[in-house]
Amino acid sequence: MTVEPSGLGPMGDVQLLAATLRSDRTDVASYARVLSGALADALPPGMVEVEFRRGLADRVAGRSGRAVAVLVHGEDRQLALREGPHGTVEPEVRQVVRDVVISRRTVDIEQWLRALAEDLTRVAARDAAARAALERLLAGGV
């Protein structure tokens, strides 16, 4: 897949990006690895937050623990992905005005991934490093 230099604008590219993010990712930790790995390096600082749960063994070993939530800050919304009971994934879209959450909506993972792809596409349209990271992700490099 070649992405035009103008960015990931067409809706088909958003759907392709959502499909790429969806593949083989069934838990919060998997999404956290993708979003906080090479992709996060190209995104604006603070756009992706990962919450970890640390047990005693993690503290003793100096590990960060297990990822239990991912929060992606968009322009006018936050996309939250939290670990639910029995390892399920609970996606939520939060409407934000001046850094205040004014509404929360539970969505399915497909809707969450589409919203994430749209936000990443907007960032890529403005930033060359983000565009290059998304092109690597679409090519299977992340």
Could you characterize the architecture of this molecule?
Helix content is 43%, strand content 26%. Helix 1 crosses helix 5 and helix 5 packs across helix 6. The longest helix has 18 residues. The two termini are 14 Å apart.
Features:
alpha+beta; 6 helices; five-stranded antiparallel beta sheet; 5 strands; 142 residues; 43% helix; single chain
Shape field: globular
**Major sheet: size, sense and barrel closure?**
5 strands, antiparallel
Alpha-beta content class: alpha+beta
The end-to-end distance, rounded to whole angstroms, is 14 Å
Uncertain spans: 1-12
The residue fraction in helices comes out at: 40-55%
Which percent band covers the strand fraction?
25-35%
